[in-house]
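Students often ask why we bother encoding 3D structure as a string. The short answer is that it lets us treat folding as translation between two languages. Here is a chain of 45 residues written in the first language.
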Amino acid sequence: MESSPLRLGLCGIGLDACWPQVAGLKERLEGYVARVAARLLSLSS
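And here it is in the second language, the structure alphabet:
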């Protein structure tokens, strides 16, 4: 059996109606997703 490279998807979701209720919430979520993506990329090298 031949192995193939691992493929992984990452997404961060939030409800559009919530963004105005909490200042900075969308940016914080986007920052978390970027940090996780960077960690995942660092594991592949």
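Translate back mentally: Residues 4 and 10 are 19 Å apart (CA to CA). Keep this in mind for the problem set.
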